[in-house]
Amino acid sequence: MSTNEDIAAIFEELAILLELTGANGFRVNAHSKVARVVEGLTSDLGELARSDDALKSLEAIDGIGKSSAQKIIEFAADGSVKDLETLRASVPGGLREVMKVPGLGPRTVRRLWQEAGIESLDDLEAGIEDGRLEALPRMGRKTIDNIRESIEFMKTAGDRRRLGTAMPIAERLVEMMQSVPGVRRVAYAGSLRRGQETIGDLDLLVTTDDPAAASKAFQSQPGVTRILVAGETKSSVRLEDGIQVDLRVVPEEVWGAALMYFTGSKDHNVALRERAIGRGLRLNEYGLFPDDGEDGSPQSRGVVAIASASESEIYQALDLPWIPPELRVDRDEFELDVPEDLITVEDIRAELHSHTTASDGRLTIEELAVAARTAGRTVLAITDHSRSSAQANGLDEDRLRRHAEAIREADGKIEGIRLLAGSEVDIHADGSLDYDDDVLAMLDVVVASPHASLRQDPDAATARLCAAARHPLVSIIGHPTGRLIGTRKGLEPDIEALISAAIEGGTALEINANPYRLDLRDTHVRAAVDAGCLISINTDAHRAEHLEFIRYGVLTGRRGRLRVPGCLNAWPDDRLLEWLAQNR
Ligand code: DGT
Ligand code: CA
Ligand code: CA
Ligand code: ZN
């Protein structure tokens, strides 16, 4: 397979490796430019590269030259590119890890490598401690402190995958297992089913008429780099990107008990087991059994289960409603009434935070509108960046006015979707906004977000965000903390204070659904929901595929007990438009 995304990644890596090996800036830029061009294309390059007239057709694309075209053809044919392999071999493998340290770009990494002999993360840490880094010219104390902090952060994030990385892998596995002869049911369990923001490993469950075939198919599927456990009912493999997947083959009649057990969380399971004991029962992954006072597992002694086939009958036998997986954390899901109507993806109607080619998005107003409508949205707010976000091609006042006009002109031309003119306006470090009030007042929607100064101390961050939340013209605070999962801690405001300010200002707080962000996070959402603060779940789409991130935002919302009445995006269109208008 060679999707445009794969091809773009090849050129991006070429650019990075060229820069690491000291190639001239022109060559480096040429390669990253090809990567951007490829990313933005809608035609399938892999297909084009295998066509008869491949070289000519590829060269005809603006921004792709002869040598790039040849590389694309080579990649489509062999799945590899010789130049890239050569470059990879000339750079110490450990530098890849060093490159992942947030804030370290190829140029700095090259200096560390060439001038201080840093070839791995271990070297880097040693170099910080023994003063080798400090001895480098133009390497300040502050930069070194930042590097140290980033390494620390990277380590605590550990070897977990983002929800958005794990989910497509799991869905592919489920589909693959479903096609194995004899297989009846397939589901993923574990932290993924609970919608946690990061995933340690994947847990798959199947029932089947032919356990041997299911296990064999699982162990021999393409992409397996190591088989860790190869049993008939339990297998465990490692896939190409390093993620581990556990598979359990379970009998049909214990499906519910197994699904419940392997969904966890462990704490939820422990609490359930204690609850069972308190009722003279025993609970394990085979079912809920009467306690016959004997040692050992009840199922092995032939004790008949009270409940095992479905999760709901087990919960019911424990005098509980079925508890949605997202709430299974052993917090208060057993004590408080669990709402039956947590928000779902189907409830979402409006996208209120999105970007077009006017700033750093890939689609025009019309293209984005069509994509949003296709994704099931009926309202779309276009909120390109404000002037301070220069790296994102933020709009000055003039461009914003013209852009808003263009959006209003496009509104009504595409059936089935309302377009709103908005802005994602920067919240400056002091809490002031990037446009004057009279500019904001002409818009339908204002998303105010922090983008710079994300290492601010908590008090300053709280004051900054609260000021924006109280601003009468702000509709939504976008990605309130600015964190990036696994790479940037972001702001650490007093979340209760922010929630109060938002309620006071009639402002909603965003769950940014991008899997790198999930910001607000689940626990913050729960605090907001409990306080009655409105939430808005947005994908922050920069291209069509991003609209599908909504599911991760919804999972995060569900973990925070969010329901339709508390989520702007799920309101009937008229009600939403009225609320936004009142907000002006
Ligand atoms: P992860 O993989 O670290 O993101 O988190 P989980 O929750 O997927 O954990 P994992 O894969 O170790 O195990 C899957 C589920 O199996 C877990 O959520 C609950 C259940 N489980 C695993 N080990 C135990 C245990 O020792 N006791 C109990 N009660 N449940 C367990
Ligand atoms: Ca797991
Ligand atoms: Ca596991
Ligand atoms: Zn945005």
What's the quick description here?
By secondary structure, this protein is of the alpha/beta class. It is built from 24 helices and 16 strands. The two termini are 49 Å apart.
If you had to describe this structure to a student in words, what would you say it looks like?
The protein is of the alpha/beta class. The protein has 4 domains: 4-157, DNA polymerase, domain 1 (Orthogonal Bundle), CATH 1.10.150.110; 161-249, Beta Polymerase, domain 2 (2-Layer Sandwich); 255-327, DNA polymerase, thumb domain (Beta Polymerase, domain 3); 345-582, Metal-dependent hydrolases (TIM Barrel), CATH 3.20.20.140. Helix content is 42%, strand content 13%. It has helices at residues 4-20, 25-40, 45-49, 54-59, 66-78, 82-90, 95-99, 106-116, 121-129, 141-157, 163-178, 190-193, 211-219, 255-263, 266-278, 311-317, 365-374, 397-410, 437-440, 458-470, 495-505, 522-531, 550-559, 573-582, and strands spanning 161-162, 183-188, 198-199, 202-208, 224-230, 234-239, 244-249, 281-284, 287-290, 350-351, 379-385, 418-426, 445-449, 476-477, 508-512, 535-538. Strands 10-11-12-13-14-15-16 form a 7-stranded parallel beta sheet. It has a 5-stranded mixed beta sheet with strand order 2-4-7-6-5, with helices on both faces. Strand 14 (476-477), helix 21 (495-505) and strand 15 (508-512) form a beta-alpha-beta unit. It is globular. 44% of the residues are buried. Bound molecules: 2'-deoxyguanosine-5'-triphosphate (DGT), calcium ion (2 copies) and zinc ion. One calcium ion is lined by residues 190, 201, 203, 246. Residues 190-191, 199-201, 203, 261-262, 264-266, 269-270 line the site of 2'-deoxyguanosine-5'-triphosphate (DGT).
